Amino acid sequence: MILYIVRHSDAVPSGTPGVSEDQRPLTDKGIRKMREVARGLRLIGVQPELIFTSPLPRARQTADIVAEETGGLVEVAECLAPAGSRPELYRELRAHRKQESLMIVGHQPSLGEIAGEIAWGSPDHCLEIKKGGACALELTKLDPAPTGTLLWLVTPALLRRVES
Question: What would the 3-class secondary structure string for 18-86 be?
Answer without folding.
Answer: CCCHHHCCECHHHHHHHHHHHHHHHHCCCCCCEEEECCCHHHHHHHHHHHHHHCCEEEECHHHCCCCCH
